[in-house]
Design brief:
Layout (H helix, E strand, L loop, with lengths): L34 H9 L15 H24 L3 H21 L4 H12 L11 E4 L9 E4 L1 H18 L5 H17 L3 H21 L4 H11 L7 H14 L4 H13 L3 H8 L1
Antiparallel strand pairs: 1-2
């Protein structure tokens, strides 16, 4: 059963608020005949604006431009995923990685850079393994220059490393980073073949999301994530899952995702009547 966790809560990142101003010059020739594709491309015109880092830019200006372009690629990958254009999403994330590897060299102490790398890795968790092979600069993987093709598991491991770097730089006090790191562990458990290792990842995930709730008890997405993690088929802590979903709904009662997750929980436990109420 496909359960959703809304993990797109973003940190306040003024350094990443560069907005490209140059217009989209045109559509690719091989895509002009596909009306659905054309509509999607028009929708992405703003982030697809020409993003050129001027040769004369340097210092702070250069980092803002590079990171602005990387975030534009990341946002385009999210739009592609929402439109079931998985291969495009992978291509955009790969382009984001190229810029992020340059940015990390310039500002390795920027929390937002490590978070954006983690977010880019995590964004592809739902893509099939056959599509999720992605080119990553070797330097992001701790190796020499060049690039490497990695799969989903290695991608999530890179996300793990990146979120940990972000948390280290902010002394572990960000509920949003704890949230995303918890989700990274959750999805890593999903692709892990060893059940014991998967259980270990899920237990770490559970602990991290509880820490996020301690720091931000009114964050309804944290409670929803706790519920989804708790009801995983390995953990099966259904009482905690129910408590978590209900706690989330007390904060945000009109959240359709949480109602659906609560309905799925009741359905798993053969309570069809309550499952129906959760999904109407």
């Amino acid at each position: 059963m496909d359960l959703r966790i809304d993990f797109w809560s973003r940190l306040h990142q003024p350094i990443l608020r560069y907005t490209p101003t140059t217009g989209l010059t045109g559509l690719d020739d091989d895509e002009e005949d596909d009306e659905d594709e054309k509509r999607w491309l028009n929708k992405t015109a703003r982030p697809r604006a020409t993003l050129v880092v001027p040769l004369e830019s340097s210092g702070q200006d250069k980092i803002v431009l590079i990171v602005g372009r990387a975030e534009s690629y990341y946002k385009l990958s999210l739009l592609a995923i929402n439109n079931v254009l998985d291969s495009k999403a992978v291509s955009y994330v790969s382009l984001a990685f190229i810029d992020l590897s340059k940015a990390i060299k310039l500002k390795p102490s920027f929390i937002s850079l490590w978070k954006l790398i983690g977010d880019s890795c995590l964004s592809l968790y739902g893509i099939a393994e056959t599509v999720a092979s992605i080119s990553v600069p070797s330097e992001l993987l701790g190796n020499s220059k060049g690039s490497e093709i990695i799969g989903k598991k290695a991608l999530l491991e890179l996300g793990l490393k990146s979120y940990k770097c972000s948390l280290h730089l902010c002394d572990g006090k960000s509920p949003y980073l704890l949230h995303n790191l918890a989700l990274n562990y959750y999805h890593l458990a999903e692709v892990e073949d060893d059940k014991d290792v998967s259980k270990e990842y899920l237990e770490i995930s559970l602990k991290l999301i509880k820490n996020a709730i301690t720091l931000s008890p009114r964050g309804h997405t944290h409670w929803n994530a706790l519920g989804v993690i708790a009801m995983h088929s390995i953990l099966k802590d259904y009482a905690l899952a129910q408590h978590s979903f209900i706690s989330s709904l007390k904060i945000e009662p009109n959240n359709a995702v949480v109602w659906s997750n609560l309905g799925a929980l009741y359905l798993i436990n053969d309570n069809v009547k309550l499952a129906h109420l959760g999904n109407i």
